[in-house]
Amino acid sequence: MPRKTTTSSFGTTKREGHDASKFYSRNLYQPGVTEAPTECAEEQEIPPAVHENWFDRIYCTSSEQMAIPDNSVALAFTSPPYNNGKEYDQDMSLEDYLALIRRVAREVYRVLVPGGRYVINIANLGRKPYIPLHAHFYQLHMDVGFLPMGEIIWKKAKGANSSCAWGSWRSAKSPRLRDIHEYLLVLAKEQASRPDRGVSDMSGEEFMEATLSIWEIPPESARKVGHPAPFPVALAARVIKLLSYVDDVVLDPFAGSGSTCVAAAQLGRHFVGFEISEEYCALARKRISSFELASSKLASSKA
Ligand SMILES: C[S@@+](CC[C@H](N)C(=O)[O-])C[C@H]1O[C@@H](n2cnc3c(N)ncnc32)[C@H](O)[C@@H]1O
């Protein structure tokens, strides 16, 4: 008899006989379970001091309060924790989880320049019931004041992957959809257009590809990077090239292994990342400095 799989921190590929009971027992799936309110960003009176050189840094603190000046970041790109059982996830109710995302959204709104963009990579969760996180995210961010600018479908696989979560095989009784995509929600602060002009660095071909609403980019290997849910640097690079100028500051409020910051550094932008896990802060810093070391070696070999 095939062994049952369970959902692991680094993902599950095969799903025959998959035991999802642990996943569905999480507070996300228990209506009305909320934690006692914790001290939230709005209630704290003293904002963190802003360092003189506040960018080109990974901060090992929560992005609910960021030591960044108002109106100073051109683009934020992130993939938030999904609260679905990765090792860094807390077991929050949907309400508590969305309250965290809202606190971070307010901070991102504060630090963005007018016309600055916030792009959020998000997937929907579960099947019993299905939680359309992207719908919650739209509502929440529009309530904060963001303007929705469009939506990119990130197609992560061609189709024929190893997932066998059929639901009811060849029967209309209860077939399950097998997601091969995630969303990138594109939001803007106050206005759709950047009021300033800067240097853009896209070829015509890159611009044509990036302005289509479906992006086909292979996923990143969690094991290779050493983080349970990294997105590919190539995904961040496409967002950064499309939506920011050279020398802009790019923020990732849930930086993980630092993929956004690596892409920003590679593309001549400044970066700033927030991440609560010390392990992932160290990993992000290591990935950024390996890139910086490689590029300084390249520069000195050319000199
Ligand atoms: C989906 S992962 C981001 C992965 C990242 N895009 C990458 O390529 O590695 C979300 C990250 O958010 C971090 N996190 C969770 N709550 C946070 C908070 N309040 N502030 C900052 N980071 C947080 C988690 O530790 C996790 O590493």
Fold topology:
Elements (H helix, E strand, L loop, with lengths): L20 H4 L32 E3 L13 E6 L15 H18 E11 L10 H12 L1 E10 L25 E9 L14 H7 L3 E3 L5 H4 L7 H11 L5 E4 L6 H8 L3 E5 L3 H25 L1
Parallel strand pairs: 1-8, 2-3, 2-7, 4-6, 7-8
Antiparallel strand pairs: 3-5, 4-5
The structure holds S-adenosylmethionine.
Essential attributes:
single chain, 303 residues, alpha/beta, Rossmann fold, 8-stranded mixed beta sheet, 8 helices, 8 strands, globular, binds S-adenosylmethionine
Instruction: Please state the second-level CATH architecture.
Output: 3-Layer(aba) Sandwich
Walk across the major sheet and give the strand order: 1-8-7-2-3-5-4-6
Separation of the first and last Cα atoms:
63 Å
Multimeric status of the protein: single chain
Ranges where pLDDT stays below 50 over 5 or more residues in a row are 36-41
Binned, the helix content reads 25-40%
Which strand-content bin applies to the residues?
15-25%
H/E topology pattern: HEEHEHEEHEHHEHEH
The total tally of domains equals: 1
Bound molecules: S-adenosylmethionine
Considering the protein shown, what is the CATH homologous superfamily?
Answer: Vaccinia Virus protein VP39
Structural class: alpha/beta
- Rounded to an integer in angstroms, the radius of gyration calculated over CA atoms is 20 Å
CATH top level class name: Alpha Beta
Q: Globular, elongated, flat, extended or rod-shaped: what is the shape?
A: globular
Task: Tell me, rounded to a whole number, the average pLDDT.
Answer: 88
Q: Helical stretch count?
A: 8
**Tally of strands:** 8
Major sheet attributes: 8 strands, mixed
